[in-house]
Amino acid sequence: MSTATTEVSAIDTHARVPVLLLLGFGLVWLLVSGVLALMASVQLHTPGFMAGYAWLTYGRTQALQETAFVYGWLGNAGLGLGLWILARLAGSSLRAGNWIIVGGIFWNAGVALSLAGIMAGDMTGHALFQLPSYAQPLLFLAVGAMSVSGVLAWSDRRSEGTYAAQWYVFAALFFFPWILSVAYVSLLASPLRGVLQSIAAGWYAQNLLTLWLAPLALGAAYYVVPKITGRVLPVYQFAGLGFWTLILVGSWTGGRHLIGGPVPAWVPSLAIASASLLVLHYLLVLLNLRGVFGGGGTSMKLLAFGLIAYVGGGLADAVLSIRSISVITHFTYFAQAQQQLALYGAFSVMIFGALYYAVPRLAGRALTSATLAGGHAILIMAGVVLLVVSLGAAGWSQGHALLDPKISYPEIAAATRPWLLGASAAQALLLLGNLMLGVNFALTLSSSLLASTAPVYAPPAKLAASVS
Amino acid sequence: MSNLNDSEPPQKPLAPGLSDADLIASHEKASGKQPDEQGRFNLVPLALLFSFSALIMWSGSYMGRFSGHFDPKIFDENALPSKGVEVVAAIDPLVLGKKQYIAACVACHLPDGKGIAGVNPPLAGAEWVLGSEERLVRIVVHGLKGPIQVLGNNYNGAMPVFGRVAGSGYNWSDDKIAAVLTYIRQEWGNAAAPISTELVAAIRAKEGNRKEWTAEELLALP
Amino acid sequence: MKNGPLFFLGLFASLTFSFAGVVLFANAQLGGLTPYYDDAEGKSFPERMPGVAERGQLVYRDLGCVSCHTQQVRRPGFGADQARGWGERQSVARDFIHQPNPQVGAMRIGPDLTNLAGRKPSALDAEDLMKLLYAGQGAMPAHAFLFETVKVSGQVPAKALKLTGNLAPASGMAVVPSERAQVLVAYLLSLNTVYDYPESRPFVKAAKKTEGGIK
Hints:
By secondary structure, chain A is mainly α. In chain A, 75% of the residues lie in helices and 0% in strands.
C-alpha cells in the first residue's frame, strides 16, 4: 500500500456521519453567531439598532454571539475534528460513533437552550460563561458522551507511542468537563463570596481558551501540517515541553483581566508573570509548525494565518499585559481586539484550515467549489485583520481618552465611531465569507449524498505521482 | 484518476503525504527519546535553555517586586506588607469630633456652640473650653452637676456622663472624647490645643468611677 | 507520552495545581472577609443594600449592563478614575462581600458606576435615571421596554416620567416605569461606597527605613 493512498484512510468512511454532523452543526452556529456579532457590532455605533427589544439589548446580543461562537461553532468543529484525528492516529476506525451523534445532539440542544435562555434574561453575567445554569448539565453530559470515542481511541491505539496532536486533543477532552463543572459549582451552585467570583470566572474563561480551545486548534494544526508537508516537525523533541508549558503555565494567566481591580495585587501579578513565561510555548509552537509557511493550498494558507495570529497574539499578550500598558488598554475595545485575535484569528482560522483538509476526505469528494473556498479564505483573513485592527485602534484611542479626565464620554464615542464602523464592516466580511463556506459545505454534502456509489476521495494527482 | 479540478489547488509536491502510522513513528524517533542511528541523544540547545532561564528570571523578579508578597490586604502592586503594626484607619479627630458633636451635643449646646441662655452654657469662647484640659476632660468623661459660671453667666444644669465609666449612658471611647473635645476647641473661633486620646485615658484611669463633678471640685484642680 | 494513566494524572495534577493556586488560595485569603467595624460610626461596613436594590442587581445582570459598565474604581495613579469623579479611593474586596452577584465588569464603553449615587457635586436622582433609561443618551441605548405607556384616566400616575419635547408620549398617555425599571433604579441609587477601609487607603512610599524589605 503506497503511502499516498493511505493519506485517505478507511477510517474516514466510518467517521463520516458523526464528524460531518458535528461540523455541520458548527457551521450553522458559525452563521448564527456571525449575524449576532454583526448586530452587536452595529449596536455599538448605532445604539438605536434593535433597542426596542429586551431580548436583543446590547448586553444580551453580546452574550449571545459569544456563546454561539465559542460553544456552538468552536465547540462543535473542534470536537468533531479532534475526535476524527484521534481515530486516525489510533489506526482503527472511529469507535462509539453513535455516542458522538447523541452527544452532538445534546450539545447543540444545550447551546440552543442557552441562547434562548440568554434572550430571556437567564445569563450568568460572567464573560465566556453566560450559559444559563439549566443548560450546563446538557453540555456536560454531551461532552462526556462524545469523549467516550476519544478515550477508546487512546486506549486502543495501534502504536504505543503517541503524537503531539493526540496529547492536545485528549487533554482538551479531559479538561472541558472539569473546568465546566468546577465553574458551575464555584459560580452558580454554591457561589464564592464577592470578588472571588470574578477570580473564579477569570480562571474559567482563561482555561476555556488555554486548556480547551487552544489544544483543539493546536491538535488539528499539529496533525494537518505534517500530513500535508510530508515532513517531520523540525524541533519535535520539544513539542512535549511546549505542550506541558501550555498546560502548566497557561492556566495561571486568567488574572490579567483583573489588573487594577478589587483583588489583591498578587492575582494580576501572578497572571502577568505567567503570561511572560508562556512565551516559551508560543516560540516552540512556531518553531515546530513553521513548515506551514512553505505549503500551498487553502488549508495551509489558513493554518499559516492562524499560526501567526496564535503566536503573535500570545507574544502580544505577554507584553501588553504589563501594567504600564494595560493602564491604557484595560476596559477598552483593545481587550476585545485581543480576544477576537485569539478566538477568531487563531483558533477559528486554524480550525478552518483543518476543516478544508478533513471535509474532502470525510465526504469522499473534493469540495464543490474552489472559488467559494478561496473566497471564504480571503474574506476570513481580510475580515479578521480588519476586525482586530479596527477594535485595536478604537481601544487605543478610547484608552488614551479615558486617561484624560477632560475628555467627556460623548467625545470618546465620537472618536471611536469610525473604528467601530470598520469593525462592523469586518463582521460583515466575516459573515459573507462564512456564508460561502456554509454553501460550499452544503453543496458538497448534498452531492456526496446523491452519489450513486460510495465515493472515495483521491488526493491531488501531483501528490500521488510523486510516490516512489 | 485525476482530480485536477478539485477544491484544493494542486499542492506543491513537497513530499509524499505521511500516513498516520508513519507520522507517529517518525515523530517518535525525532523526539529524541531513542538514540538516532549513531547512538546519540538530542540535547537541549543552549538557546532554548537561555531563553527559558531568562523568562523564568523575568517572571520571578516580577513576582518578587509586584506581588505584595501575596498579602490579601495589598491592593496596590507597589505596596509591601507592613511589618507587625496593624494598619488602622487613621481617624481625623475633627471629622469624628464634628460627627459626635452633631450626634449628641448639638441638642443642648446648639450647632453654633452658643448654648441656651440660662439653661445650657455656651462653648464658643468659653473659658472652661479654652482653659485647663484637666477640667474639660473630666466634665465630659464623668459629667457635671450643680451650678457653674460660664462667661459671667450662671447655669444650673446637668451635663450627662459620656465616658466609659459606671453609670454612663453613652460609653464613648477615649478616642471619641478626645476627638469631640479637639473639635470644640477649634470651632466657632476657638483656638486651643487639641486633646489627645492618651490624656483622656490617663484621666479616666486616675479618677476611676466617680459621681458627677461639681464646679468647685473642678476649680480645685490645676 | 506513552503511559495513559500517567498522562491523565499529569493533566489532572496540572489543573488541580492551577485551581488551587489561583482560586482556592484566593478563597482562603478572602473567603472569610468580614465587614469592618468602625468604632466611631458604631456600625460595620459595607452595609447591605436594601432588598429592592438586590432585586435591581438581578435586573442589571440579566440586561447585561456589565457589558458596557464597570463597578471597580482603580487606585489613584493608575488611570484617571479619581479625576473623573468615579470614586475617591480604590475598590477593594471588602466592598463586594455582601453582593450575591458582583458585577465588576471589564469594559468602560460607559462610565464606571461604583459610586453613581455618591457622585459629587451632585449625583443623578431617580428622575434623572428613569429618563436616562427611557431615552438613552449618546452611546447608551434606550431601554424603552422597561417602561409602559398607559392611558391616563383621571389623575396622571405618580410615577409617570416627566417627559418633554419629542420624548413626550401622545396626549392623554403617560410613561410609567415597570417594576423592573423601579428596582433597577433603586439598585443604581444604592451604588455608593462610603467607607474608607484600612486596606483601601493609598500606599504612599514612605522613607526607605520604614518600608519592609524582602525577607
